[in-house]
Amino acid sequence: MYNKRAQREGAAVAIIIIVIALFMTLYLLFIPPAERNKILDGNINDNLDSSSSSNNLNQGTIELLAESPGLVSPTTESSTIHRIPSVNVFLKDEPQIITLAQSLVVSKGLFSKTIPELKFQTKDLDQTTKVTLFFSVEQSSGELRIKVNGNTFYVEEIKTPGIKIIEIAKSFLKKDNNLELSVSSPGIAVWKTNTYNLKDLGVKQEFERKNNEESRTFVVPSQEKVSMKKSKLKYTQVCNFPLSKEVTHLDVLINDQRAHDANIKCLSTDDEFEIDTDLLLAGTNTLTFRLEGGDFSFNQIKLETESRTSDRPTFYFSLNDKQINDIKSGDRKIKMHLLLEQNRNIKNARLQINSNEVLMKTDRNTFDLDLKDYVLEGTNFVKVLPVNSFNIIGLKVTLED
Q1: For the stretch 50-83, what's the b/e string if a residue is b when 16 or more beta carbons lie within 10 angstroms of its beta carbon?
Q2: Using CA atoms, how far apart are residues 279 and 254, in angstroms rounded to an integer?
Q3: pTM of the prediction?
Q4: Is residue 293 one of the residues assigned to a domain?
Q5: Does 71 fall in a domain?
Q6: Are 318 and 174 contained in the same domain?
Q7: At 156, which CATH number?
Q8: For residue 345, what is the enclosing H or E element?
Q9: 177-196 pLDDT, tens digit each
Q10: Which tens digits make up the pLDDT trace of 244-271?
């Protein structure tokens, strides 16, 4: 009884095995030949290893660079004007005339004499360079004597009519002054009277007005200073009073450093000269006009600077030894993708990849480039050199399978 049951179970197992074998045979008939050969050759394990290795090589997309440059523009020249207030510099003698008398008689005889006294004021003696007494002589006899504040400063017999100018020592002068005129006695000629008839008496006080150096400040922003290519100073020169000599010397200083010097004449003219940009500072600067002599105004002063401005973005990415080998062997691809603004305008630029240049000229909103022939191991860079202005919304460099 037991043996019969065992025989029946064995027959069932055999049938199952036959069915499995039949299905395996059908499977081998319908699978691709390459896979069937691998199975028949007993390389199933090798196939699994190969599949595992292939999965390891399939690393997907690596993003090496992702930027949003925005607006890019070609190199342009820009000019900035700094307007500076006018300057008045002078070093001059300024006269002041004090009228004493239109006519005056000074006389002395045996029985009579006329000794006139005149009052006058002198102000700002510390700025006074010279004080003179002047008058015109119409009639003269004897020795004319003149005192100021009790100090005799003139004794002389004037024999010919004419204008006389006599300097008064500053040490004799005060704010309020007393001038006394007298004439010598005729001596034994008792019948004679010495007389001076004088006209148009006055005092001339000369001052030295000094403002031979004047400064103004202006500000240069740091961005302007960094991109500055050259600078120029312009102004209008006005001569306010004739020079005592043919020319006078002018110095123009920037931050106490000489930027320009010249001998100038008493002319009203426009002038300009270039300034070494190294003299200018980022921030506050001082402009100084210094004059040797004369009286000049410098108006409409303008400092013009020229700057070179550009938006040339540069981006960097790195590749290791294995990545470079994969790229050169063709196992992996390296691509640059630019997403541009959405319009039909031409976007024109030179793309510099390391030492190579590629021209981009498109009206589309994308631009793609294979970088295989341009990259190298280590640090690589991409520089955008725009020919016209446009927006780069995105720039990517990717390593792909």
Answers
A1: eeeeeeeeeeeeeebbeeebeebeeeeeeeeebe
A2: 6
A3: 0.47
A4: yes
A5: no
A6: no
A7: 2.60.120.1200
A8: none
A9: 999 999 999 887 778 899 99
A10: 889 999 999 999 999 999 999 999 999 9
